[in-house]
Batch of 4 targets.
Target 1
Amino acid sequence: MRCLPRQDKRPGMEFPLAETIPTTIYDIAIIGGGPAGYTAAIRGAEYGLKVALIDNAPRLGGTCLHVGCIPTKALLFNAEIWDHLKHAAEFGIASIGTPTLDWAAVLKRKDSIITKHVKGLEFLMKKHKIAVISGNGKLTGPANAGVHTVEVTAAGGEASQIKAKNVILASGSSAKMLPGLQPDSTVLTNIEILSIDQVPKSLIVIGAGAVGVEFSSIFRSFGTEVTILEFLPRVVPVEDEEISKELTRLFKKRGIDVNTGAKVEKVEKTATGVKVSYTDANGKPQVKEAEKVLIAVGRAGRTENIGIEKTKVELERGLIKVNEAQETAEPGIFAIGDIVSGLPQLAHVGSMSGMVAVAKIAGRPFRPLRRDRIPSCTYTEPQIGSVGLTETQAKEKGYEVKVGKFPFAGNAKATIVGNHDGFVKIVSDAKYGEILGVHIIGPQATEIVAEAVAVLELEGTVDELMFTIHAHPTLAESMLDAFGAVQGMAINA
Ligand SMILES: Cc1cc2nc3c(=O)[nH]c(=O)nc-3n(C[C@H](O)[C@H](O)[C@H](O)COP(=O)(O)OP(=O)(O)OC[C@H]3O[C@@H](n4cnc5c(N)ncnc54)[C@H](O)[C@@H]3O)c2cc1C
């Protein structure tokens, strides 16, 4: 039986009896309409394939669009404007009085950005004639005569089946919780915190990965007393050590209480909020109270209830094992995005893994994802943008490493925008001068890093980059100075 695509279900439309409809065999059925799934769907259609996209949320877009990348970056932009307003007089903008924050309007703007992009996605699905199907998708087992069957259960409980030659699993991830805790209006995950009705006076953030530090940055800008409790010895632990150190220094300067090596023992609700007991880095028991607590201790892949137990699909620490073409161990079944093992859980990784899987299905050329070519961006104040090997990783891989570092303090555009904090650090191979990693913390780091990604992708060397013209005055010029710094020849430091 053919399942009716979501865009066809308009009131008043007449459908023929299900029995009279010949079964559609799609080239690809995709389970999950987040950035991994919808990108794969569009690329599939661009290759001329017949694609069905199954999603169980009320609207397409997944974590990224609804409770991840987009809403957090919207709030961070509000925070940035708010921070500028605090220093308006420095920029010669006088007599603006005391600005007040209309939190409801902040949330409304965030929601309108989401809605705009949901509509954009819906338009793209129609444009590419992708069958969007509402419901929970589940594999029924291996393919039968080369055709897979996905069972789809709609929100109302009605079940139907989709037939496809290939299935792409793109069900994404959810926030991990600490044992015994349930999210509510005090104990928050990325979902609840994005719609709290007012800015909390105090917030404890457990976990200092990208999600934890971004929310810390947002709420600190809005005046919240923020305490970070991180189990590992440093914040943003996947970044170069010097980046973690600089973020800690600058967060502390902003009044954020950063505690690393802190082992959370207990989270209890109180009459006024929450009490967190933890053991500090010196092994001493500590207690901290706040109005709210954000649990940001990582993301679990949604691998349950998608039917993989009936297939040869293999798991690795709760995530799906794939080869370089995103194929699982079950023929015709691919996995992309946050449910995949061995790749960072980022939207751009999800979308590119989708494009790789679909190219493989379409028999088109593709380039497998390389972990050391994936940019990592953290949109805190200060921002972080990095790609490639950290200094430690490069040494561990046996490179003789040569490092160049240039502080934004020497960059004219940084002076103009009033933000001198941070630096650009280049990790290069001493023998051939190949750039192995670029680590930026400071103004617009998440934009400047795009150059670094291209440099690594094209295997650029220090000598080449030292003679690459960068426009003046730009923040990107700090890259030129950092490449020069590798040879001890930065101009502006
Ligand atoms: C607070 C926060 C901020 C973030 N910021 C960034 C950022 O700035 N940049 C960045 O690159 N990444 C960011 N991320 C990570 C990013 O959101 C994820 O990497 C990305 O959303 C993963 O995409 P995905 O398509 O794999 O999964 P998801 O976006 O999680 O989408 C999966 C979709 O599948 C649906 N689904 C699940 N199971 C089924 C099923 N059985 N049947 C049908 N549908 C199903 C879900 O409802 C969902 O719509 C952030 C994450 C968080 C939490």
Target 2
Amino acid sequence: MSHLLIRGWRKWAAVVLIAVAVPLISGSSASNGTETYDLVIANGRVMDPESGLDAVRNVGIRGAKIMAISSSRLEGKQTIDAQGLVVAPGFIDLHEHGQEPRNYQFQAHDGVTTSLELEVGTADVDQWYARREGKSLINFGVSVGHIPVRMKVMKDAGTFLPVGDAARRQATPAELQQINDDIENGLRRGALAVGMGINYTAAATHDEIVDVFRLAAKYGASVHVHLRHAGLQEPTTGLVGIEEVIAAAAATGAPLHVVHITSMGLKNTPRLITMVKGARASGIDVTTECYPYTAGSTQLESAIFDPGWQDRQGITFKDIQWTKTGERLTAESFEKYRKEGGTVVIFSIPEEAARTAIADPLIMIASDGMPLTGTKIHPRGQATFSRVLGHYVREERALDLMTALRKMTLMPAQRLEKRAPMFKDKGRIRVGADADITVFDADRIIDKATYEEPLRYSEGIQFVLVNGVAVVKDGQLVDGVFPGRAARAPISQ
Ligand SMILES: [Zn+2]
């Protein structure tokens, strides 16, 4: 009884203390005008795709969080003058293979605050995160990848994509069991999604693919798929490829995300988009993404260039660029470099297909950026987001600014937030959201990286904050800061 009384008294005393404390705090802040934030972004045009807010506001940040959005003046220990600039949620890239410090510098300059490798992914989720923890400029995350798991289980000699058994042989029952066990383990260890590239593991049976979808469904993880077919020729068209995975999603309940729909559909991209929309209208959780370019990029030694590739893809040797030198290929150099192994750029996507996807409000923007293995690599990893905002929004008027921002902030966050609830606080300018913020000049933002000069920073992105810390200031990289954090699903074991 007395114990209860004491507890009751304590509770009452606490209420009094709070009641006293609150007026004290507000009293003291009233005396110097306002509350002080760590950082204030003042007078910018705040654009939030979730609420639809598009107005001049001041944003107050404390620690790693947005704490105030106000039309009145806010007091900050530091202030960024954003007059005339757009203040947007930091861009979330669902698809970036380059996950090294130098890639993060290029991505920060392109407005990206969260860089995710969800297509190829990893076979070792713990190690992947451990390597980047505390050392990263921007936030980072990964899927457990069917490709690297299959390579590990089947002892394929490839480094990034399969070159041997993982591409060309059916798995034995014992290998299939191991592939499923490794994928399930990755999901338990907090992988954001499951990655698949069926075109690169072409000998994987339809059964093997459906089993992976079933596992993803069990963990509420989306499957990010490079389709089995990307060609124009029956029966290996992009349409057939998308049929396989829409069926797998429908039959298992796993959410499906089709990567780079333009390089899958080529001139038939609108037909693939129609399939995605039709599946969604029938209640299947399907999303997709594209990059703003008319070329793809991959490894020359991969199964994509197995005999018959010219007819399948509707291209020939001269449409392929060797990234180490920039030269276009011939029959001879194709043979030589395919044996050597390395990255190529493939000019195969019609501009009309690219533009259709970029302008479509349903289709997210993701870079598919590549590791920096040559001086003539694809520019997409360095410049995708500023190219959409500068070239397609401002110069071409293919879509409006808010729609474009939604496709690179809110939509990718929503794609992942059921599996990884931390994404509910990303992709938004909202009180309580993570202070991942990109401030840019809408009149000046533009990509500078090209196929000839791919290692150039984008322009017009003035400030980039990651968890409240500036990584780009006045258009320049900030040295020696590592505010990037793991973007990861809850660990279930
Ligand atoms: Zn791909």
Target 3
Amino acid sequence: MRVHVIEAGRVRIKASQIVGRGHGLRRRLAPLFDAEWSDWLPVNAYAIEHRDGVILVDAGASAGLRRLPRWHPYFRSCVIFDIEPEEEAGPQLRALGFRSADVRRVVLTHLHVDHDGGLGSFPKSEVLVSPGELRRASGLAGRLRGYLPQRWPKAFDPKPLILDGGPYGPFRRSRRLTDDGAVVAVATPGHTQDHLSVIVEDGDEAVFIAGDASYNEAAMLAGAIDGVSGDEAQAGATLAAIRTFVAARPTIYLPSHDPDAARRLAGRRGPSQSIAACAAASRAAAAPADFGERISASSGKAASEISVINRKSLE
Ligand SMILES: [Zn+2]
């Protein structure tokens, strides 16, 4: 089974959104007053090439996000997107040889604007969303929370993804997404209350598509809660469950905004190998020998060239 990284745009956010500062409301308001911006981070969607059809996990950003509602303090002062129309998930999948009809399902980890932005390219795909997330994102209350329900495609009619398949490893709720059971959605509440992640099983190994469960692998390993999560205990428990999972099984951890995610997928480096790389670079090459045969990264050359041009033109 191949997993493709689709870098559907780039984003800059505040450092205190990536790793929260302080606690409670203070932590959640800190990004508004934080002068420290991140570098440009990828906005990754991930396409799983399964024999039943392509499963796209998250739809990435859209070119429309270059204009955001100025009345909302978060959009006004905490986030900047950079994306051309041809960098959206639909055009990039087409460049990889997939028609939008090949994308059987789009599974959304949550409905933040850089995860549902590219949905317009997939009018015929089955879109799966947690019912709780859909409730929180809808209507005026959703707009106040920083979602953009008014920009959902007219045909947006997601199916509820109910995680009623019982526990999966350290995760309390799950749901198998394919008949062979190799693609599993698991509850990873924290960043949003109904946030979910998607695990691709590949023999003894796993690919963990994490959405915004953490912004990068280091934050997950450190148990560092972001500046967004409402409930620190819940977010901390999710990060602990992910650490338990990756400790038990060779895992490639792929959050949406981790600058190293594509490299890890291409190089088949899980968290344990990453730690080894820090401790002893010479031993870091000891990745499972055949993993690359079945799982490989691919990101459009054209797209990465575009991103380099964009970055330069902004500097
Ligand atoms: Zn998010």
Target 4
Amino acid sequence: MDSDAMRVDGNAMAGVLGEVFVQEMTAAQIACEGCGKVEPVGAEHAYVQAPGIVMRCCHCDSALLVVVQTGETYRFGLGRAKWLEFAERA
Ligand SMILES: [Zn+2]
């Protein structure tokens, strides 16, 4: 299976990010350190068949975020995400 067939959009990460950050994450903005572009989380590429979930930049393919869940613990790696911005839940 090639990488395009394994990729879904970043909305696939919304559930796990919402559990970690307790905010609505699909509209959160994320900045790529690789190319400098800023996109909503939902627009990035997510690979969910890895041992964790990997979000890659939809422009330059840099690994932005990695989330691994083991039991009730989450390990969250920032990768090449420069920043993540989201609004407080109303
Ligand atoms: Zn990029």
